[in-house]
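Methods, example record. To illustrate the input and output format used throughout this study, we show the complete record for DUF3152 domain-containing protein. The sequence lines were provided to the predictor; the line carrying structure tokens was produced by it.
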Amino acid sequence: MRANPSSSPAPSRRRAASARRRKQRVLRRRRQVFGVGLVAVLTVIGGAVYKLTGDSAGTPTGAATTQARAVPAAESPAAATTPPPAEPATPTPAPTPVVEGKGRGTFTTVQANGPVVGKGETLRKYKVEVEDGIGIDAATAAKQVQNILSDKRSWTTDGKNSFQLVASGSYDFTVKIASPEVVDKICATAGLDTGGEVNCDVDRQVMVNVKRWNTGSPKFSGPIEEYRALIINHEVGHRIGRNHLGCPGPGQPAPAMMQQIYGLEGCVSNAWPYTEAGKYLSGPARP
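The corresponding predicted structure is encoded as:
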């Protein structure tokens, strides 16, 4: 059935349309308010999460973890370019002096002649001989002996004796460097017991034990060159008539004629009969 146009309620339609518009506006305002509130809530929650999970400076945990991650040694640039610290060098120990136990019993005479040293009226010529097979270079040994007897602290300072190295002809004595066995054998001809350890002066022979020549003495504080000087000065001292002496007093230099290998009696080690100033280093007489 068709409605009669004359009776259509036009005002009613307008009122209905206006009501719909009002309703739509209310819904839009509600949606806007809800959206703003939601953003505010999310902002508050995000800030709380930020504070709970960030580091003390406000850095998020993820960033802090990235910064604090330990770099493995293989990835570290310093490890790749910096060599490890070098270990401290181990000091090389001083070589142990060679001590030859047994020679051949034969000797090589050094073929060398030296100048006269000293101004004493008594010229004492000497030869240097080294037993074969004991590992001592004869020429070097002769030079060392010559230097010792040429030193102004040696016996030339007494004003009575002078010395000269010779290879042949007449001579006053021979300096022989030999194995302990040979030294013992030759020293025993004069009734001396050297026990494989010490030196002696017998029958125009200054016998030098190669063990002492190479190693010195545990009682002597000083380099091996000084102990060699003591050996020569002591035994040559016997050659020119000097006898044994004792320590003159605690802290004083031990006389060259003291048997220092047996102890210093409070003296200090010394290899020379005279001081640099020409004073003779004496002490009480000993057998």
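Annotations derived from this record:
The domain at 107-262 is CATH 3.40.390 (Collagenase (Catalytic Domain)).
The chain has seven helices and six strands.
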